[in-house]
């Protein structure tokens, strides 16, 4: 895990690139962030015993896949603590997630066949909603609950947007949330709704921000 420079000894938040040394910290942050999310509760059947283990297994397998495929992974450091993380997938990964055979096997063995199938079906529905296929994805982003409401999520998302705008292999960023209270935040960052996916008794919101030539210079980090 590498970080930036602390100017004048100020403990300001710093964006860091994540490597496998941050794996366990990232898993802990993301499990805390997602275990209460409606989308994960539906996909991984929170009513059945072992729910948190399935969430942890899914987060772990996704993180390992992203590191294995050398995808972008970034975090926010504050007071020498990793407080927020995000994993960014290139467009091809979303299109080919179902073809990641070894990942699918590990998912079935840890999260179970039914949950793995439900998760893949959910991704297929998101893919079908994209206005064009060359979009980066943001399937994992979270802030340590102890550090929420301090602006770290906005710092993290702004950096994700900048990285995506600079990457010529994609021209947009897609994310989703089952929690409608996050919608104003994403809309303030320039995301627009592509629609919703019905998951049980609630709707998951799929959001998209398109990038054009020159957007990287305007995106704040």
UniProtKB/TrEMBL annotation:
Domain of life where this protein originates: Bacteria
Pfam assignment, any one: Acetyltransf_7
CDD domains the record matches: NAT_SF
Gene source species: Marinobacter vulgaris
Gene3D superfamilies: 3.40.630.30
Keywords associated with the record: Transferase
Molecular functions per Gene Ontology: acyltransferase activity, transferring groups other than amino-acyl groups
UniProt xrefs under PROSITE patterns: GNAT
Residue ranges annotated for the N-acetyltransferase domain, each copy included: 53-213
Protein name per its UniProtKB record: GNAT family N-acetyltransferase
């Amino acid at each position: 895990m590498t970080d930036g420079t602390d100017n004048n000894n100020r403990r300001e938040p710093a964006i860091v690139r994540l490597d496998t040394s941050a794996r366990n910290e990232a898993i802990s942050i993301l499990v805390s962030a997602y275990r209460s999310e409606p989308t994960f509760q539906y996909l991984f059947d929170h009513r059945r015993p072992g729910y948190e283990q399935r969430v942890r297994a899914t987060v772990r397998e996704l993180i390992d896949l992203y590191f294995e495929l050398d995808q972008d992974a970034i975090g926010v450091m504050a007071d020498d603590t990793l407080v927020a993380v995000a994993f960014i997938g290139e467009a091809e990964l979303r299109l080919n997630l179902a073809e990641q055979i070894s990942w699918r096997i590990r998912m079935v063995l840890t999260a179970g066949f039914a949950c793995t199938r439900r998760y893949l079906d959910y991704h297929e529905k998101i893919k079908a909603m994209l206005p064009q296929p060359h979009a980066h994805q943001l399937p994992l982003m979270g802030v340590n609950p102890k550090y929420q409401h301090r602006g770290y999520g906005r710092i993290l998302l702004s950096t994700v947007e900048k990285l995506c705008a600079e990457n010529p292999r994609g021209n947009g960023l897609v994310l989703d949330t089952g929690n409608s209270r996050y919608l104003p935040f994403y809309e303030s960052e320039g995301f627009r709704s592509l629609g919703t996916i019905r998951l049980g008794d609630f709707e998951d919101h799929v959001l998209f921000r398109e990038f054009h030539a020159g957007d990287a210079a305007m995106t704040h980090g």
